[in-house]
Amino acid sequence: MWYLFYNSLLLLVSPIILFVLLAKQRCRRGLPQRLGLRADRVSAESAGRASCIWIHAVSLGEVVAVAPLVRELRRRYPETRLVVSTVTETGREAVEQRLEGVAEHRYAPLDFPWVVNQAIDCLKPSLYIFVETELWPNILRSLRRRNVPSILVNGRLSTRSFERQRLPLIRGFYRTMLNMISCCLMQSERDAQRMIELGAEPSRVRCTGNIKFDQPIPQVSAGAVVSKAALGLTDRELLVVAGSTHPGEEEAIVNAYQMLSPDFPDLRLVLAPRHIERAAQVELMIQAKGLTVSRRSTGGQAPMAGKGARVLVLDTRGELALLYREAVVAFVGGTLAPVGGHNLLEPAVWGKPVLFGPHTDHCAEVAALLVNAQGGRVVQDEQDLAQGLRELLRDPAIQQRMVAAAQRVVADNQGALQRSADIIATYLPGRETSRLARAQQGHELSSRQS
Predict the structure, then answer these.
(1) How far is CA 151 from the centre of its chain?
(2) pLDDT at residue number 415
(3) Looking at residue 225, what is its pLDDT?
(4) Comparison of pLDDT for 2 and 344, the residue scoring more
(5) What single string gives the DSSP state of each residue in 29-52?
(6) Banded pLDDT at 22 (limits 50, 70, 90)
(7) What is the DSSP code (8-state) at residue 234?
C-alpha cells in the first residue's frame, strides 16, 4: 500500500521533478542516463569482472566521504567491478578526479520503478552501498526482491530529518523502507539511536564512526598549481580560506575581512562558493564593496598579485582541499547560513584552525570534537568572525595550540574505514555471511567502543 501511494505521488509530481533537474545546471548533463534513455556503456575490462559493487553518493561531499572506502574495496577485491553513482555533475567530476582507475562512474537512476529495474539489470550488483542519507524506496525494494544486500555507510540523521520522519503520516512508510536495508553503519551513537527509534531492527544498526576521519591528506605534486606562489602571493602574505560558502555567508565573510584589512595589510581572502555557478554573483558583490577581486578561472597565472586588500573567488573544482594547506585560518561554510554545515575535516587534516558558524547539524559530532579539543571555534556572525580571526592573527601561540588540537582530533578518531570494510565483507557473496559471524563482529565492535 505504501509503495503504491509513493509511486502514484512520484508520477504525479514527475513533471516538477524534471523541470527542477533541467533548471539546475549541475544536474542537467546526466539526466538522459538517470531516466534510462542512455545505455550504460561497459568497458571490456569491466565486463570481464566476476561481480559488481554499486556505491551511491549524491554529490561532491558524499564522494569525498566515501572515496577512502572505495579505495579500500579496490584493494581488497581487485577483481570486482566498482561503480560509483552520483546525481550531480560535481559528483561525477569528483569520482573521475579522486577515483580514477579505482571505480567507474554512472549517474544514479531516478527512483521510478522501470528506470531502477533497468539500472539494476544492467549493473547486476552483488552489493549496494549508499552514503549518509540517500534512501530511495524503489531502489531498496528492487534490490531486496533480487536478494542483493544493501548497506548504509557513514549514515547520519540530522535533527530536521529525524523530526520529519517521525511524523505519524510517514513513519510507517519509513519503517518499511528501513527494514529493506541489510545493515546501517552510522557515524555516531546519536545517529544509531535515531535509526532504531525510526524502526530499524537494532541488530542491523552499528555505530562505526565517521569515515571522513580516515580521509588521506590530499597529495600535492611537485608541480602543484594550488599554492600561494601560483596565486601571486608572497610568503609574507597571510591567507584566509573560506570554503563551501552559501548566499549571505559570502557578504558576512567579506565584511569581516574589510574590518581586518586596515590592521593586517598583508591579509588576503579566498572565497570558494559551494556552487561555483554562483561565482559571477559573488564577484559582483565583492566589487560593489570596493575591493579588488578576481576569479580563479579567469584571473591569469597569478590572480592575487598586487598590493592592497584582495579577494579571489575560487570557481574551479578539486582545488579547495589543497588550498586549505596554504591558509593560516580556515572558515567552513553552510554554518552561518542555516544549511547544516559542510566538511570541517578538510582543513583540519592539514592542522588548520577551523572557524564555523552555529548551524552544524550535518556535522554535529565533528564540530563538537573540534570545539571541545579547542581545534575549532564557533562564530555567531560577521562581527564574531572578525574578532575570532583578529585574535588568531595577533597571537601565533593560539594558532599553534589550535593546529595541534585539530590534528589530534583527526588522529584520535580514525578507524571507521576498517570497521566499515570488515562489516561489508560479510555481505559479499562467497564470504562469511552467517548470522553467527555477524553477531560476533557486532560484539567485537561494541567492545572496542566501550
Answers:
(1) 18
(2) 95
(3) 59
(4) 344
(5) TTHHHHTT-S-----HHHHTSSEE
(6) confident
(7) -
Q: Is 215 among the domain residues? A: no
Over the range 210-243, which residues count as b (16 or more CB within 10 Å of their CB) and which as e? bbbbbbeebeeeeeeebebebbbbeeebbbbbbb
Instruction: Note down the domain range covering 184.
Output: 2-209+416-449
Average pLDDT over residues 58-71: 91
Give mean pLDDT, residues 15-40: 83
Residue 91 contacts residue 56 (beta carbons within 8 Å)? no
Sheet holding 51-56, edge to edge: 104-107, 80-86, 51-56, 127-131, 150-155, 183-186, 205-207
Contacts of 43 (CB under 8 A, 6+ apart): 104
For the record, the C-alpha cell of 228 comes out as: 600561494
- Strands (E) in 246-281, as ranges, are 267-273
Catalytic residue, from 62, 249, 283, 346: name it.
62
Would you call 72 a catalytic residue per the annotation?
no
- CATH assignment of the domain containing 402: 3.40.50.2000
How far apart are the C-alpha atoms of 68 and 348, rounded to whole Å? Answer: 17
Shared domain for 281 and 380, answered yes or no, is yes
Tell me the pLDDT tens digit for each residue of 177-209.
Answer: 999 999 999 999 999 999 999 999 999 999 999
- What number is the average pLDDT over the span 201-230? 81
pTM, two decimal places = 0.82
Q: Report the candidate in 114, 156, 130 with the shortest Cα–Cα distance to residue 362.
A: 156
Maximum distance among all alpha carbons in the chain?
Answer: 68
The SS3 of residue 13 is helix
The reply to whether 243 falls in a domain is yes
Chain centroid to Cα 17, Å, comes to: 23
Higher-pLDDT residue of 174 and 184 is 184
Q: How many domains does the chain have?
A: 2
| Cβ atoms 293, 311 nearer than 8 A | yes
- DSSP result, 97-157: HHSTTT-EEEEPPPS-HHHHHHHHHHH--SEEEEETT---HHHHHHHHHTT--EEEEEE--
Q: What is the mean pLDDT of the chain?
A: 89
Which candidate, 117, 126, 167, 132, places its Cα nearest to that of 147?
A: 126
CATH number for 173: 3.40.50.11720
Under 8 Å between Cβ of 149 and 171: no
134 vs 342: which has the higher pLDDT: 342
